[in-house]
Amino acid sequence: MKTTRYGEGSSAHPHDSSRPLSEDMLPDDPVEQFSGWLSDAVQAGLPQPNAMVLATTSADGHTRARTVLLKAHDGAGFVFYTNRTSRKGTDLAGNSWACVLFPWFALGRQVTIEGPVSMLSTADSEPYFRSRPRGSQIGAWASRQSRVLASRAELDDRVAELERRWPAGTEVPMPDFWGGYRLAPETIEFWQLREDRLHDRLRYRRTPGDWVIERVSP
Description:
Blueprint: H1 30-43, E1 51-57, E2 63-69, E3 72-74, E4 77-83, H2 87-94, E5 97-104, E6 109-119, H3 122-131, H4 134-142, H5 152-165, E7 178-183, E8 187-192, E9 200-206, E10 211-215
Antiparallel strand pairs: 1-2, 1-5, 3-4, 4-7, 5-6, 6-7, 6-8, 8-9, 9-10
Helix pairs in contact: 4-5
């Protein structure tokens, strides 16, 4: 079997940002900085720029990661939605601390955010559920997320059954096992590619009174 090896080589990147990332470039508010970088990712045409890798830890100490979609963000935190009985939902019920990573490799950038996660209420989750395409609403009911399936047909049959239960023109209720989560950031790190692996890493860290900005060794 052929093994593909990745040497050091040059760290030059065709889409490197034109300027190094420095402390004097950053606003006091990390959410403002994040919004700017997310806007850059959108304008660059990256596929699903709001995709983020979510890492959680199970009750027995196993760390697990998967990709979810950021659906809202503000000063209170970063919001995503999922099945509460999934592995990530179960993990978060036992250990609320989590980490998300935005891998904007085409721009030579990453953002890593850590903090506690809390569940959104039904009232706060429902508006987003109502905005989803009907197929996604049915899918939320059909998927017993993270459970083993005997076959694809099992899932397709469940979808067909639910479509008969709620035919076109009828409202699909939001499942009681589905909803939103908000990660309240304690740290937000902005990483930007530089040559020779000497990348810029600037981290906002929450303190009782304000955010402090720290440069981290690459």
